[in-house]
Design brief:
Length: 372
Amino acid sequence: MYTRRKHMHKYFHMGYEQECWYHKDFHLYHRYLRWARPAVFLFNLFIIYLLFKWIGNQAVSIFFAVFITIKEIFHLAFLMRLEKKIFRPMDQLKHAVDEIAKGNYNVKVECEVTNEFAVLIHSFNRMAEQLLQSEKIKLAYEENRKTLIANISHDLKTPIASIQGYMEAIEEGVAASPEKLDKYLKIIHHNIIYINKLIDDLFLFSKLDMEKLDFQYENVDIRSYMEDLMEELQFELEEKQIQFTYWDRMDQNLLLYLDRKRIQQAIRNIIGNAVKYGNQEKLAVEVTLFFQEDSIRIAIKDNGPGISEDKLPYIFDRFYRIDHERTKDFMSTGLGLAIAKELVEAHRGKIMVSSTEEEGSCFTIMLPVAKS
């Protein structure tokens, strides 16, 4: 094993020495083209001067002078072209590779040639751009990981502290009456349910984020699917004294390639969000199914307090809450809309929102029609 490592070390060491020699040769040639050739050209001009001075035959002198001058001009033009088309791009590429090796991916080689080096430089620039994007994604994931840990810690700390406080109160005999004890136990139970819901949502969102959630896709008749789901939701909402209306604006039956369970979960999350934040006295939820611009659209509208324009861009962010104080009473994990967005996008769909304060909000799910 030691001998093998020794040979490997020797191999890499020899490779490094060979690379150094190539690097030295390249710079030697480059220096020669930049400085030596002009010097040789000047030397040849000096020879021409001597020919004029020492050779008596003027015709012979002129012939040699013209021949040497033309040869040197063509030679110098060729070398200048070689410098511009090959050596300079190679030098720029070498410096760019060194920058990449140092971890600087924000580097680009300016392409001034149209030969094979242009293809090489273009490929290098594309590679550098991909490396830069990968680094940005890596940093974004790291930042998201830190934010996620901070949010989880904050969201778990409050209910756990509440449970601990009420448990200590019960142990110390503060809950002397059966009514007070029952109240404390209900609060503890309420917080335990919240913690379980938060953990379930976190688990689901993490699997979505890592693209490890299994989807059971199938061709589904969207009208029949929505009719069954809306009947179920209507029964649940009307039990809570919530006015519910469903409109089927489709004029034909279309198939969608989707996971029944996941799309239902996305719709339930949006409606659940409307119920949590809506007008608790006269809340109304309206769902409309229609076809527009080559996609099936499901519009979910409520008559709640609405969302201010400055908060709209953030409502699909995980752990984002419009009103932190009110959400404590609504069992909100801050992940419902983020999960809905991920589930819809996993179906190659989109989700949009429009809202007017004091009038309500409208979430629109857009799903592509299945290919026949």
